[in-house]
Amino acid sequence: MSEHGESVSLKHGRIIRLGYDCNRICDRYRYDWQIGYDIGIDSSRKIWLIEANRRTPSHALFARLEDKTIYRKIKHMASLYNKGSI
């Protein structure tokens, strides 16, 4: 457990669940193959959805990571989508 009483894996699970819930709501109005969510955690460790970026979310922060694995996966999926493969 973290010093604030909630494990990192539990917090991670709650963030993933928030993404799924947001996708389900967004899909009611219009399908987008890719949505980027800006999520924050405040000093009380409460999770906040700041905004949803539809159609063209930025991948720039992922490109700045030392480990490019996630960035390459995102770009690969975008390439497949643009080719009509998914």
Main traits of this protein?
86 residues, alpha+beta, 2 domains, 3 helices, globular
Describe the 3D structure.
The protein has 86 residues and is α+β, with helices and mostly antiparallel strands. It has three helices and two strands, in the order αββαα. It folds into two domains: 1-55, no CATH class; 57-86, no CATH class. The protein has a two-stranded antiparallel sheet. The longest helix has 20 residues, at 8-27.
Which geometry do the CA atoms define? globular
Number of DSSP helical runs: 3
Helix content: 40-55%
| Rg (C-alpha, Å) | 15 Å
- Tally the structural domains: 2
Number of strands: 2
Provide mean pLDDT, rounded: 85
Order of helices and strands: HEEHH
Q: How are the strands ordered across the major sheet?
A: 1-2
* End-to-end C-alpha gap: 39 Å
Give the oligomer, counting copies of the same chain as homo and different chains as hetero. Answer: single chain
Beta-strand proportion: 15-25%
Largest sheet, in brief, is: 2 strands, antiparallel
Low-confidence stretches: none
Structural class based on helices, strands and sheet pairing:
alpha+beta
Write a short abstract of this structure.
This protein has 86 residues and is an alpha+beta fold.
Write the layout of secondary structure elements.
Layout: H1 8-27, E1 35-41, E2 47-54, H2 60-63, H3 69-82
Antiparallel strand pairs: 1-2
